[in-house]
Design the sequence.
């Protein structure tokens, strides 16, 4: 039977742009200044109603509603925000990562361990860098103002997703993560949390690395100095995947190669002089938003860590 997450991705790819255009046409009679808010409220209301129906329903009906909720709604919201099918496709494809992981269970698995991988020790402190990708991947949202470059970046992100998913299916792997993380402190706690929520599969190529380099190379088309800084940070994220034992060295190389393929296909041809000079000057300052957001999220994670440390003592 087809995995619900796989079905959700298919539904999102097909339904979201079609439904998005229908929603926009349906609200053409609403004043322009209110149209987007009304559309958002309508979709949010429909999503809430579907979520309630999933909880109240049972059997096959509840499963179908879950597929709609997971597949169509996020992609539809992405379409309403960006007005592009490529953003809808990107959002709809993301859950497929977990669907492929579920389908990997029971299949013969590969472990491309090399002498270099064995020589790299487990260092939980690198988790701080590793987890920054979850914010760093969205750096183009802060620095890109040109619609054409934004669209090309979306194409690049979708391309590395497709390349990675093909790799996950054709070459299923099991990661090098240990059975347990020995040690105390915030970084070790954060690494254990990452291990608990992430599949031990889907390693080659590394999406962590691919997304980081697409983000950096997109920023490079806006501002050269910012781009080199971002590329350096993407390299550090690649190193962090080894020290956290989330990936093998070959996964890092594969992820970087996937990003370069996407860069050549969609980003390299974008002329730097197409970016307005004012946006170019402001790009480094806007990029500081990444630092601010990441610092805030780390503070929230630290608070969660302290709460979990205090709770056993209180009991």
Sequence:
């Amino acid at each position: 039977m087809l995995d619900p997450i796989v079905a959700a991705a298919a539904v999102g790819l097909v339904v979201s742009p079609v439904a998005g255009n229908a929603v926009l046409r349906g609200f053409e009679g609403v004043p322009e200044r209110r149209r987007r808010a009304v559309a958002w409220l309508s979709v949010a209301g429909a999503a809430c109603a579907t979520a309630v129906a999933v909880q109240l329903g049972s059997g096959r009906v509840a499963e179908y509603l879950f597929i709609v909720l997971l597949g169509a709604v996020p992609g539809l919201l992405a379409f309403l925000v960006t007005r592009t099918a490529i953003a809808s496709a990107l959002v709809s494809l993301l859950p497929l990562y977990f669907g492929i992981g579920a389908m990997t269970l029971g299949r013969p698995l590969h472990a491309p361990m090399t002498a270099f991988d064995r020589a790299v020790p487990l260092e939980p402190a690198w988790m701080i860098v590793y987890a920054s990708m979850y914010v760093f991947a969205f750096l183009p949202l802060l620095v890109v103002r040109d619609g054409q470059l934004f669209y090309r970046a979306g194409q690049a992100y979708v391309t590395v997703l497709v390349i990675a998913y093909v790799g996950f299916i054709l070459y299923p792997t099991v990661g090098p993560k240990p059975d347990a993380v020995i040690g105390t402190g915030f970084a070790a706690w954060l690494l254990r949390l990452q291990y608990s929520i992430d599949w031990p599969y889907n390693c080659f190529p590394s999406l962590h690395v691919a997304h980081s380099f697409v983000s950096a190379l997109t920023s490079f088309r806006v501002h050269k100095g910012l781009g080199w800084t971002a590329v350096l940070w993407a390299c550090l994220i690649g190193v962090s995947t080894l020290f956290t034992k989330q990936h093998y060295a070959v996964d890092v190389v594969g992820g970087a190669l996937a990003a370069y393929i996407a860069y050549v296909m969609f980003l390299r041809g974008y002329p730097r002089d197409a970016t307005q000079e004012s946006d170019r000057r402001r790009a480094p300052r806007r990029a500081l938003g990444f630092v601010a957001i990441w610092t805030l999220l780390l503070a929230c994670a630290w608070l969660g860590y302290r709460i979990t440390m205090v709770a056993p003592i209180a009991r």
Remarks:
- The chain is about 75% helix and 0% strand.
